[in-house]
């Protein structure tokens, strides 16, 4: 089901696409949920509209023009769009263009960003509550596109009204908020979700702010009376006093539950790793950002939306990095200095990062949830190199215990860069 506001926006933007050259130097200023939904919808229909950002850009305009060209006729654009969606229902497997669009949609969700589509899709579908998580169906593609647009809308705090087919559980999933707190913040019609009902994103944020179940009290707002966390490097006394750091570990796109385990393990073993986050993750987890910064973890940038920066045009790279830097500055009071990549970034990314006073760095090795023994062996055997953990990890106590037994001390990305310069 495509809502009337999306159809209206599609009509407006299509007129804009027909009137604006594809290589226009000025990007249209249109933004919001409807733009994000149009981008996502065009993607699953097989048109390369670019990443779902909710902001108009030349690539989306080109896709709109192509849609109009490939769906000619005297009928209204609404009818042509409806026909395209109906034709989508007859497809059995996604085309290469649709697969790319689905992968881009999945990349918006940090917990699925680094998995191949074949693994990310079933995991996402199960988390979203779809009935057949193992099958690729056009209806499910549309659900992914819609919830991806909703997620971007929530992250930017743009206005949104509930649409036909929306549910509390799926909207809460897209917003990455507890369903009970989310529905409690939107009780205009009691427990019933009405079509057209304005959705409130921020009212529910304070709801789950009960103190974490940890031995030490934690506050989302730093105070002078709070105990000072251990430094990121060991003190100048004790068994480590004459040892220099050995290698660097970066945790890229951390899982929320794993951060508590990391901080507890770091406090016990007096170690600190680098943590690379997307701007969106920082926006939705401000308390965890505060705690990581207070604990001495160097915070690096992993992009903003989770999109592959190598696949974005220059202006898109600048936008992603600027937003991420602004978020971390606001939350920590300090600028981010490094952008971390699993692989060597292209020249456009490196240049755009440098223009923002950011240094693009690539990992020497990337692993997904390695065993503690394997990770410890790699780190102690590769001095002055960067190991990147991609995605969820919950074996921090075991890993740090093994490293401490080997008299290991972490380097930071900043120290690695200083030695390479």
TrEMBL record:
Highest rank taxon of the organism: Bacteria
Signal peptide: 1-24
InterPro entries to which the protein is assigned, alphabetical: Glyco_hydro/deAcase_b/a-brl, NODB_dom, PGBDSf
Keyword Plastid: no
Biological process annotations from GO: carbohydrate metabolic process
NodB homology domain residues: 270-359
Feature: compositional bias, Low complexity: 216-226
Protein name as it appears in the record: Polysaccharide deacetylase
């Amino acid at each position: 089901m495509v809502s009337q506001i999306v159809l209206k926006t599609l009509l407006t933007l299509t007129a804009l696409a027909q009137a604006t050259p594809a290589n226009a130097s000025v990007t249209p200023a249109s933004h919001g949920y409807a733009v994000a939904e149009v981008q996502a919808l065009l993607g699953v229909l097989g048109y390369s509209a670019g990443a779902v950002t909710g902001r108009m850009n030349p690539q989306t305009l080109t896709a709109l023009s192509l849609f109009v060209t490939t769906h000619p006729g005297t009928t209204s654009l609404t009818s042509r769009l409806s026909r395209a969606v109906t034709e989508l229902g007859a497809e059995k497997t996604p085309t290469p263009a649709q697969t790319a669009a689905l992968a881009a949609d999945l990349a918006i969700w940090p917990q699925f960003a680094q998995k191949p589509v074949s693994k990310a899709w079933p995991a996402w579908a199960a988390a979203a509550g779809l009935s057949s998580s193992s099958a690729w169906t056009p209806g499910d593609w549309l659900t992914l596109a819609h919830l991806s647009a909703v997620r971007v809308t929530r992250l930017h705090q743009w206005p949104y009204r509930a649409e036909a087919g929306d549910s509390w559980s799926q909207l809460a999933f897209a917003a990455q908020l507890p369903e009970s707190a989310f529905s409690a913040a939107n009780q205009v019609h009691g427990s019933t979700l009405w079509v057209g009902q304005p959705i409130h994103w921020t009212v529910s944020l304070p709801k789950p702010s009960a103190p974490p179940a940890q031995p030490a009290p934690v506050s989302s707002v730093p105070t002078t009376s709070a105990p000072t966390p251990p430094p990121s490097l060991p003190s100048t006394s004790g068994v480590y006093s004459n040892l220099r750091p050995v290698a660097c570990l970066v945790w890229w796109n951390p899982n929320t539950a794993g951060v508590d385990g990391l901080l507890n393990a770091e406090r016990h073993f007096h170690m600190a790793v680098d943590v690379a986050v997307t701007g969106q993750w920082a926006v939705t987890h401000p308390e965890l950002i505060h705690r990581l910064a207070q604990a001495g973890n160097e915070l690096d940038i992993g992009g903003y939306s989770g999109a592959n920066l190598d696949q974005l045009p220059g202006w898109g790279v600048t936008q992603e990095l600027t937003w991420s830097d602004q978020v971390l500055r606001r939350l920590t009071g300090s600028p981010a200095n490094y952008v971390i990549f699993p692989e060597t970034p292209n020249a456009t990314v490196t240049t755009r990062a440098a223009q923002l006073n950011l240094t693009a760095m690539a990992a020497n090795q990337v692993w997904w949830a390695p065993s503690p023994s394997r990770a410890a062996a790699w780190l102690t055997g590769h001095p002055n190199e960067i190991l990147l953990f991609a995605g969820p990890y919950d074996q921090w106590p075991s890993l740090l215990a093994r490293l401490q037994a080997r008299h290991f001390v972490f380097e930071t990305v900043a120290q690695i860069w200083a030695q390479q310069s």
